[in-house]
Write a structure and sequence with these properties.
The chain is of the alpha+beta class. Helices cover 47% and strands 16% of the residues. It contains twelve helices and ten strands. An eight-stranded antiparallel sheet has the order 2-3-4-5-1-8-10-9, with helices on one face.
C-alpha cells in the first residue's frame, strides 16, 4: 500500500500534498496543559472507545502509538512524515497518535488540544481530506461532548484556532516562481489575503527544496466550506502561474535550463557527501526536470521518497543507528546514489 508521501495525486507536479486538521477539546476535562496525568489517560481511552464504537471498521486500520514509548529517532521519523507535530513529539504529557495503516489519517491526542484530527493526501485533494476528517469528527462527537459555544464555535488552547478550529494547507513545489523572483510578490499577496506561507515543516521552518506550505490563518467567522474553497481557489491560481513560468523558462533558454537540471542529476548520482540543504535543492531541480520531460529515468514518486528519506530521522533509521553530522552527509549521498542507480539506464 502506497503511503501518501510517496504517492501521486491530482496536480501533484505542483501540489505535493493536501492536509486538513481539526482541533477539538473535550468539555469534561481541562485543556491538556492544565490537565492531570489521569485526565490525559482518560482522554486517550475515551477517544478510542468513541471512535471504535462508532466505526468498528477502523479498529484494524488505526494503530495507537504511545509517543513516550518511542526513541528519539522514531519520534523524528513521525515528525518528518508529518504524522505528528514537533510539539507532540517533545511533550512531557501522556501523548498518543492514532495512525492509519496508509498513514493518511493521524489523530494526535493531548497535544496543544485534546485532539488534532488530521488527514493527508497526495496532490490537490482538499475536499477528500476534509470529508475524511469531518467523518471522524462526527463519529467521535456522537459519544463525546466537545468544548463549544454557539456564538463562537469550538474552543481551543490557542485563540487563533477558535471557531471552526480548521486548518487547511497545501504543500507546493514552486521552483519557477522562485527562479524568476516572483515568489516575493506571491508571499506578499498571500499575507494580504490572510494566508500563511511557511517552509517544509510549518511555522519557523525554511522553504528548502522550493517547498512552500500555504494555509489559512483565519478560523473564526468563516464556515468550513468557505475555508476549504478559499485554499482550493488560490491553490488553482498558483498552479496555473507556476506551470506557465516553468514553460517560459524552458522556452527562453532551453540549453541553459536543461544544463541546470542535468548538473543537479550528475551531482546527486555521483556525490559522496551531501548536506540536507544541497540535496533538497538538487532534488527540486530533478523533480522539475521530470515534470517537464527532461529526465525520464526517475519518477516523481522516486523524488518524493528521496526527499523524505534524506531527512535526519529517516536517514538514521536507514542507517540503523544514530549518526553524527559528518556521517549523515555521507549516508545521505550513499542513499541517493543507490536510489538513482536503481533507476538509471544507459
Amino acid at each position: 500500500m502506497s503511503k501518501w508521501y510517496i504517492d501521486s495525486g491530482p496536480d501533484s507536479d505542483i501540489v505535493v500534498s493536501s492536509r486538513v486538521r481539526l482541533a477539538r477539546n473535550f468539555a469534561a476535562y481541562p485543556f491538556p496543559q492544565r490537565s492531570t496525568k489521569e485526565d490525559q489517560e482518560n482522554v486517550i481511552i475515551d477517544t478510542c472507545n468513541a471512535l471504535f464504537a462508532g466505526r468498528p471498521d477502523l479498529k484494524g486500520r488505526l494503530t495507537l502509538v504511545r509517543i513516550n514509548d518511542l526513541n528519539t529517532i522514531q519520534k523524528q521519523v513521525l515528525v518528518e512524515k508529518h504524522l505528528v507535530s514537533k510539539e507532540l513529539a517533545e511533550s512531557s504529557l501522556e501523548t498518543c497518535a492514532l495512525i492509519s495503516d496508509d498513514e493518511q489519517i493521524s489523530i494526535m491526542i493531548n497535544e496543544e488540544d485534546h485532539l488534532r484530527i488530521q488527514c493527508l493526501k497526495a496532490g490537490m485533494q482538499l475536499d477528500s481530506a476534509f470529508d475524511i476528517c469531518n467523518s471522524l469528527d462526527d463519529t467521535i462527537s456522537e459519544k463525546i461532548d466537545y468544548a463549544f459555544i454557539d456564538k463562537i464555535g469550538y474552543l481551543t488552547s490557542c485563540p487563533t484556532n477558535v471557531g471552526t478550529a480548521l486548518r487547511v494547507s497545501i504543500m507546493l513545489h514552486l521552483p519557477a516562481l522562485t527562479m524568476t523572483g516572483y515568489i516575493r510578490a506571491f508571499l506578499e499577496s498571500c499575507g494580504k489575503l490572510g494566508l500563511a506561507v511557511r517552509g517544509l515543516y510549518g511555522e519557523n521552518t525554511e522553504a528548502y527544496g522550493n517547498m512552500f506550505q500555504l494555509s489559512n490563518q483565519i478560523t473564526l467567522g468563516k464556515s468550513e466550506k468557505d475555508i476549504v474553497e478559499s485554499i482550493n481557489s488560490i491553490g488553482r491560481q498558483i498552479i496555473d502561474q507556476e506551470r506557465l513560468l516553468r514553460q517560459e523558462l524552458l522556452n527562453k533558454n532551453k540549453n541553459r535550463f536543461e544544463d541546470r537540471i542535468m548538473r543537479s542529476y550528475g551531482i546527486l548520482r555521483y556525490s559522496r557527501i551531501l548536506t540536507l540543504e544541497e540535496a533538497l535543492k538538487r532534488l527540486s531541480d530533478i523533480r522539475l526536470g521530470i515534470n517537464l520531460g527532461i529526465i525520464k529515468d526517475l519518477s516523481q514518486m522516486d523524488v518524493n521518497e528521496m526527499m523524505l528519506m534524506i531527512q535526519p530521522g529517516n536517514l538514521q533509521e536507514y542507517a540503523g543507528r544514530p549518526l553524527k553530522p559528518e556521517e549523515s552527509d555521507s549516508f545521505r549521498a550513499e542513499y541517493v546514489r543507490n536510489k538513482i542507480g536503481e533507476r538509471y539506464s544507459i
